[in-house]
Amino acid sequence: MRIVHSRARPADTIRLLRSHQRSQHLHGLDAAGWVFTRKDGQPIRPDYLTYRFRRLVAASGLPPVRPHDLRHSAASTALAARAWTYVRSRASSGTPATC
Predict the structure, then answer these.
(1) pLDDT for 64-99, tens place per residue?
(2) Are 44 and 37 in contact (CB under 8 A)?
């Protein structure tokens, strides 16, 4: 398995989301205002995302992880990169200790 590391900048993320939004508009999938949809424009069910995530984690051979755990991993990664302001503003209690 090949792991690719990426450090997306906010501007890159915004550019990608705007491109995705234009594509949805061209295909008539933006009427309900959903960001990510099924092919028919309907919203993706949360239980389906959880199901797919669990299957992908199991197939990867990595230890079990929940989607919510990724929030903490992202905060820890930001702290390691010295992104203090970002983490403090995003943490639920506003303290790095909870990340």
Answers:
(1) 988 888 887 777 877 777 765 555 555 555 444 444
(2) yes
63 SS3 class: coil
Kindly report the pTM of this predicted structure: 0.50
Q: How far apart are CA 61 and CA 43, in angstroms?
A: 29
Which own/partner pairs from 71-74 qualify as long-range (CB within 8 Å, at least 24 positions apart)? 72/99
Burial of 88 (0-12, 13-18, 19+ CB in 10 A): middle
96: tokens are: 């790095």
Where do runs of H (alpha helix) occur along 2-96? Answer: 10-26, 46-60, 67-80, 84-90
